[in-house]
Amino acid sequence: MSRAALEMVGQGGLGYSFDSLVDVASEHPYTEAAKGLTAALPPLQLARDLLLPTIVKIGTPKFRRACLDLLPYKAALKLKNIVDILDKTSIEIFQAKKESLERGDEAVQEQVGKDIISVLMKGNIEAADSERLDDKEVIGQDKLRGEVQAAREQYGEIPYDVLMALPFLDAICRESMRL
Questions:
Q1: How far apart are CA 119 and CA 175, in angstroms?
Q2: Does one domain contain both 14 and 75?
Q3: How far is CA 101 from CA 7, 140, 178, in A?
Q4: Which of 39, 95, 103, 105 sits in a 20 to 30 Å window from 76, CA-based?
Q5: Is the same domain home to 85 and 18?
Q6: φ/ψ of residue 115, rounded to 5
Q7: Are residues 128 and 145 in the same domain?
Q8: Which InterPro entries match (predicted)?
């Protein structure tokens, strides 16, 4: 069921196939990483709750990454590898879709309207320069992440009503549904 769910999200949201759903087919690395993510988190819960709020304030992301690479804690390194696979795959999908859209690839042009990311990317390409998002913003959604982090800092576990009232999250959800 999880393979089928990821495949539906991949095709409907990204216009990308992660898995042929044939038993003999090997799993896509993204599928394996997504499955491993759930198992990799519990061993790090104490460190996440106690250390992470302090660690994220130290140095740059590149410095923190270098420190993580030196850490002899297998659970943290396993999680880092999983996140690397998820991040690399999402960037590869985005870059391939972007290049195809910019080239005017007919197969991708036919796909537009059938998956969410194609519609959003085409809208971004056609937007006025002042409204266009750069690739880093499209991939990372830093503004959304900042809004959610601020709510977590204020509430800890974000109550449902507060989560539903986050304006940027609401705008993204509404625009995605509208498209």
A1: 11
A2: yes
A3: 22, 20, 21
A4: 95
A5: yes
A6: -135, 150
A7: no
A8: Cyt_P450_sf
Nearest to 115, CA basis, from 18, 8, 2? 8
Q: What is the pTM of this model?
A: 0.67
98-106 contacts, C-beta under 8 A, 24 or more apart: 98/135, 101/125
User: For the chain, what is the domain count?
Assistant: 2
Whether 78 and 99 share a structural domain: yes
9-37 pLDDT tens trace? 888 777 788 876 776 667 788 888 988 88
If asked whether residues 117 and 34 sit together in one domain, one would say yes
Joined together, the tokens standing for residue 68 give 């993580």
Type and span of the H or E element at 50: helix 45-50
Q: Which domain holds residue 175?
A: 141-179
Give the separation between CA 138 and CA 14, rounded to whole angstroms: 13
Do 156 and 111 have their domain in common?
no
Q: Look at residues 19, 20, 40 and name the one whose alpha carbon lies nearest to residue 29.
A: 19
Rounded to the nearest 10 degrees, the angle between the axes of helix 29-40 and helix 74-103 is 140
Question: What's the pLDDT tens digit per position in 106-140?
Answer: 665 665 556 777 777 777 777 788 777 777 777 76
